[in-house]
Write a structure and sequence with these properties.
195 residues, alpha+beta, five-stranded antiparallel sheet, two-stranded antiparallel ribbon
Length: 195
């Protein structure tokens, strides 16, 4: 077991990381596989390079992650609300690399996610990549399900293939990173391309 202390814009978190194996028949972190949605799916971010955090992240004076679901949901909503204007102005109607998709009660990689675990997953990605954004799928029409917290790379791509090439370039597993187009009108079909 490796223990690391991670600083997240005023928030200090102690994270215990244990090696976790993936079985070949494990579901993606979205709770459904690419086959479930005709080649469309959602994944989790499992790779963790070291980059500085985004400077425009919400801050907190707490020294630990919230343990209550209500407090964790409040923090998730703060991140999504703070990120929404930037996402709408720079990423809407573009392809992005989706790094994680979690909802309360889903099981992925041997974890049953509650709100505190979803917050921890997002904060891990926020410290692992130079710039990510959190979105609530209920704010967008290009997602099949309206109740997921999704972490995306804060970079737009001209095509789905470009977004997937970014995932390839990061060395991320195909189930953990793939192309998603963010739209606030229309349906979800045609807005996801898995690798």
């Amino acid at each position: 077991m490796v223990t690391a202390v991670v600083a997240v814009v005023g928030l200090v978190i102690t994270v215990s990381v244990q090696g976790q194996g993936r079985s070949s028949n494990a579901s993606s972190s979205s709770g459904y596989s690419a086959a479930d949605v005709g080649g469309l799916g959602a994944g989790s971010g499992g790779y963790q390079p070291s980059y500085p955090t985004a400077s425009d992240s919400p801050t907190t004076t707490s020294s630990a992650l919230p343990t209550s679901s209500a407090d964790a949901v409040d923090q998730l909503r703060q991140y999504a609300d703070a990120d929404l204007p930037a996402v709408r102005s720079a990423l809407e109607d573009h392809w992005v690399a989706q790094l994680s998709s979690k909802k309360v009660g889903m099981e992925a990689d041997g974890i049953v996610y509650d709100a505190p675990a979803i917050l921890q997953d997002h904060l891990r990605l926020r410290t692992s990549f130079a710039s990510v954004r959190l979105i609530w799928t209920g704010d967008w029409s290009s997602f099949k399900y309206p109740d997921f917290w999704v972490t995306v790379q804060d970079q737009s791509f001209g095509t789905a293939d470009d977004a997937n090439a970014w995932c390839d370039g990061q060395g991320l597993p195909k189930d953990d990173c793939y192309a998603k187009r963010l739209r606030s009108s229309g349906g979800y079909e045609g807005n996801t391309k898995v690798r």
